[in-house]
Amino acid sequence: MSVVVVNTQGWVLDAHSLIDKGYSRCIRLRDNNNQKSHVEFCFKSRCFQILKSHLSENASAATDGGNADTLQKTDKPSKKRKRSELNQGEIESRAFHEKIRSAILKGTKSLVDSARSLGYLNSATDAVKEPLPSSRECRLAALCEMAKELPLVDDEQQEECTQLLVAEDGCTSHVDLFSRVTENRADSATVVTLMGEEYVIPPHTAFLVSDFTRIQPLVHYGKRFDLIVMDPPWVNKSVKRSGRYSSLPSTQLRRLPIPLLASPNCLVVTWVTNRPSHLRFVRDELYPHWGVEVLAEWMWVKVTTSGQFVFPLDSHHKKPYEVLVLGRYRPSEDNATSSSETCEVPVEAQRLIVSVPSALHSQKPSLSEVLKPYIGAEAECLELFARSLQPGWTSWGNEVIKFQHTSYFSLMPADNGADDRPTATPVLSSSGESSHCPTTVDQ
Asked: What is the pLDDT of residue 124?
């Protein structure tokens, strides 16, 4: 089950199921030999067991025993802080929140109610006993810094910018992750040892591990993409304090070679924090700089396993939603090619994506199923600043395989006799009638 509900308000996603679709069949390779074993991996369920809202003590006491009414109880704005004056950023944030508040409240209630009618988001009792994966240090970003000492790949060497994850002799020991695009062309996920660590690589996946200054191999890769999704490392105070990852100034994002990567009418989707300055920058500066026409602002609404907002809707500190800005790349007439023209599906101006978020920092839900109607089943898809991989996608970032490490997965007994056909999942359509949706992504 991946898309639980779809109606005129948006979607309810099972983000955990979306991840697991690529790992039902895995081949595990051993270092420097041809030994293989068939295994099955499942992303750890504990990462998606968000059982309670992050409420204040007073709010928690007020909502105890009333999970089913949580969305209704947030209908009234919470009591505001006493403060002499607000800065300009806070004024803009409050104005933006008031503008979208009603749509989020009503739309989320509609979607959650529909999901509950199908037996989803209505129970917080199925807690998984296992602990969260340990907060292991990701060495990829540091290794990218070291890789800067390697020579740049020029245009004459672009045919050498790709490599197979598994060589013909079954070895992975000579894979150059930092200056070549690595491809897993297998029909099954592959568990390989890279840099002394085991990673699970989805089928039909390509990726490049590099920082912002070494993105050239991706440009030389020779593909034009019909969908580009990016989750930039926006500068903010919490990131600076935590030191979880290096942030990137907004102005540097303008240097991303989107016109060299996007096909005509490519759908460009950017995750944006709730700072109005970031949203304004994407809409008014970044997209116009690339030649991308702004089409819509969608919202990702984060809820618990029982359908509550993960933070109070009117919290002054953190909101239970994030913004997605969608646009289409409109190349100049000189750069447009008629052979690349596709039938463009209109993008609705407002939609909600409701899901239980991951407890792992910065792990966003896959948008593959949500965006498929707007790009087509055979679309070439790219994720920038990725921290995980998706079947059929190309991904780039300095931590692009972070969440592919086997420590984030549970090893399951392999069922070699399992039926290869996708399982049908009940989906509530916009008319309210039940339909079925395959749990595999057609790429």
From this structure: 60
- pLDDT per residue over 93-138, tens digit each? 899 999 999 999 999 999 999 999 999 998 765 566 677 776 556 6
Q: How far apart are CA 429 and CA 435, in angstroms?
A: 7
Query: Strand runs (DSSP E) across 195-291, as ranges?
Result: 197-201, 205-209, 225-230, 262-272
Render pLDDT for 293-325 as a digit per residue (tens, 0 to 9): 999 999 999 999 999 999 999 998 889 999 999
Tell me which residue of 6, 414, 380 sits closest to 229, measured CA to CA: 380
What pLDDT, on a 0 to 100 scale, did the predictor assign at position 427? 46
Domains of the chain by start residue, with CATH: 3-78+87-424 (3.40.50.150)
Selection from 307, 301, 350 nearest residue 326 by Cα = 350
- List, in sequence order, every residue forming a beta bridge with 192; answer none if it has no partner: 199
Rg of the chain, C-alpha, whole Å = 22
Helix (H) or strand (E) holding 58: helix 57-63
Distances (CA, A) of 316 to 74, 178, 258, 274: 14, 41, 35, 12
Dist. CA 191–CA 202, nearest whole Å: 9
Amino acid at position 286, single letter = L
How far is C-alpha 381 from the geometric centre of its chain's CA atoms? 12
